[in-house]
Design a protein that fits this description.
The strands form two sheets. This protein has a five-stranded parallel sheet with strand order 4-3-5-6-7, with helices on both faces. Strands 1-2 form a two-stranded antiparallel sheet. The longest helix has 34 residues, at 52-85. By secondary structure, it is α/β, with parallel strands linked by helices. It has nine helices and seven strands, in the order αββααβαβαβααβαβα.
């Protein structure tokens, strides 16, 4: 698999090589106003398709760019949906209706972006991987959550929401920062995206699973990369809650609440064994 930048570079290299191979030699004799093609070297045909390597690299580049753009769109939709979900008791009925309209528009946009992503990969799953838990609206704290999210607006709005529900939130922009936090701090739940700079969510989880296995069961994954078959296979194997972006806040909060309940039960059991 090529990265977006690697695919672009490869495409340019192959194109340049192709152009050089077809370039006429000024020292060769010319006949009838055109290049004299040597035996065994066919003439370039107008409208000729580029080599398969160029086509493969170009398609891979376009695919990577589309996935990146859709992921960015899902992050923006997530921010809008989160803002529209904040409880504001002083809103008028007209304002509440407008919020419902905004949520409906976000849902339509999310369906379009999911459809685009699915068209990119013929092996993409038909459904978003979600493990939904009931959330009763109660405060989730006191507990500490690590939020691993590279998108700053998305990170800020989700942090605000979780803090309003009584949680202490530690934020990290990538898997490297997150790993350092987990080494030094007591974390009850990890909310992590998959597409992260430097160290991605998958690598973060695998390192935690190997070096700090008791924390691996505290992950909740949020991602717009669910159409990638490799990502989907990884997420299924973790056995952890997975929420597709853009998500309903109730789905995220329900998954976090389930993890915190599991952590509390495990802590209680340890205390009983010691007692």
């Amino acid at each position: 698999m090529f990265g977006a930048a690697g695919a672009a570079v490869l495409a340019l290299v192959l194109l340049s090589r192709s152009a050089v191979a077809r370039r006429p030699d000024p020292d060769e004799p010319q006949g009838d106003g055109g290049p004299d093609h040597r035996e065994g070297q066919p003439a370039a045909i107008e409208g000729e398709e580029p080599p398969p390597e160029v086509m493969t690299a170009s398609l891979q580049f376009l695919k990577a760019e589309l996935i990146e753009a859709a992921n960015a769109l899902n992050n923006r939709l997530n921010v809008i949906r989160a803002h529209a979900s904040f409880d504001a008791p002083n809103l008028t009925s007209e304002q509440r209706n407008r919020l419902q309209q905004i949520k409906a528009e976000v849902d339509r946009a999310a369906q379009i972006s999911a459809g685009l992503l699915h068209k990119v990969s013929s092996a993409a799953p038909d459904t978003i991987p979600e493990v939904l838990y009931e959330y009763d609206g109660s405060a989730l704290g006191p507990a500490t959550v690590l939020l691993v999210e590279s998108d700053e607006p998305n990170r800020a709005v989700i942090t605000r929401l979780l803090e309003r529900l009584g949680l202490r939130v530690v934020a990290a922009a990538n898997g490297l920062e997150a790993y350092e936090v987990l080494e030094k701090s007591q974390i009850d739940c990890v909310i992590s995206d998959l597409r992260l700079p430097f160290v991605g969510g998958r690598t973060l989880f695998e390192q935690i699973e190997y070096n700090m296995p008791h924390l691996a069961s505290r992950f909740v994954f949020v991602t717009g990369d669910y159409v990638n078959p490799e990502s989907r296979d990884f997420l299924d194997k973790t056995g952890q809650p997975v929420i597709g972006k853009p998500y309903e806040l109730e789905a995220l909060l329900g998954a976090v609440a389930a993890i915190l309940r599991k952590v509390a039960i495990a802590s209680r059991d340890r205390d009983e064994e010691r007692g």
